[in-house]
Amino acid sequence: MCVGSFRQSGNHPFRHTCSLLLHHWFCNLLSTHYLNDIMSLFRAVVRAPLRAGLLRSVAARPAAARMYSTHEELSDADFDAKWKAYFADETLDEHAIRRGLNDLFAHDLVPEPVILEQALRACRRVNDFSTCVRVFEGVKDKSPDDETYNYVVGQLKPVIEELQLTLPEELGFH
């Protein structure tokens, strides 16, 4: 639509002519002839600094340095306190609990029984039995040997009985 003083009138005499001109101009802009001209101009603009030696080619660039996170490592006590506080949060739903467990098991360690106790209590609070079983499966996967797994299960035995949980072995999974 043409912009001008006749904008409010619906039957402007040049309205149809303006829209046809805009349509014709836009179609010509997108035609291959103009597109080829635009691409050749773009190539010339990109290649000119390379030819002049102002930019180095990609092959001549040094490898980029890896940028690591700048946050400091948590001590063992702080790590345990962080995860105990996370799972002790009464507002967590089952999705947040699973996300926290995924983050916890992503670390290269077997979580401490005190953390797992809070995680199991959180799962039981939202009645998510399957995630309780998955906690034990995660511990078994992370444990370097059966002795470590049995130690963690032994430490959690009072919680398992209190919350009436079932181990994967009792369900026939392992």
Automatic annotation (TrEMBL):
Keywords: Heme, Iron, Membrane, Metal-binding, Mitochondrion, Mitochondrion inner membrane, Transit peptide
Pfam hit, one: COX5A
Superkingdom: Eukaryota
Lipid bilayer topology: Peripheral membrane protein
Gene Ontology BP annotations: mitochondrial electron transport, cytochrome c to oxygen
Subcellular location: Mitochondrion inner membrane
One GO MF term attached to the UniProt entry: metal ion binding
Keyword Metal-binding found: yes
Protein's recorded name: Oxidase heme a,cytochrome
A single GO cellular-component term on record: mitochondrial inner membrane
